[in-house]
Amino acid sequence: MRATNRNIAAALFRPPAIFGGLLVYGEGFAFTVAEPPKWKGDIQSAAQWGANIIFYPQGESPSATGTIVIRIGVFSKTDEDTSKDLEADMNQYRSKYPKVAFKDIDGIKSHYKAWPRLFYQPQTFYEYVTYLNPGPEHRKLISISMNKPGTPATADELHAYQAVIQSFLLISAPNFRVIDGSKRQLRN
User: Fold this and answer.
1) Which phi-psi region, left, alpha or beta, contains residue 59 (left: φ > 0; alpha: ψ -120 to 50)?
2) What is the percent of the chain where pLDDT is above 70?
3) How far apart are CA 127 and CA 90, in angstroms?
4) Which listed site, 62, 70, 114, 139, has its alpha carbon 20 to 30 Å from 127?
5) Overall pTM surpassing 0.85 (yes/no)
């Protein structure tokens, strides 16, 4: 078991190769994030995953059985107690999957305070979950998760997950508005 933790930490500490960046926006927020090499960022399919953007390996379909998917969701927060939010999600998993186990994930690097945890049921699913709290000046909580059916994530998959987390930057302002240049309209 200890070797597994070392493998996870080694994969997460490898510096990510980040090329370019994406701008994703919604009601009251915007963020930038880099697309990991050999992965595709997709906002079109994100809603069916409960996310603002998803990433999956190039050449695969996010809806195909066995495809690993990284999701980013931006949510309104009510307070700064992010550990309470994580505990609530863990309780939901416990009620849905009585055999679920949890483990801390070491080595996650982020611009924000992070709460990384692995939710797993051996040979069924491995859900790598990291909550990011950008601080009291921002009214948003970020969830970045990676779902791997059946087996633990490989070092390369963990590296892609870390690259997404490490590249994430929230652009948040209370009066953030989107200007749609193609229609010459201002969207609130």
Assistant:
1) left
2) 80
3) 11
4) 139
5) no
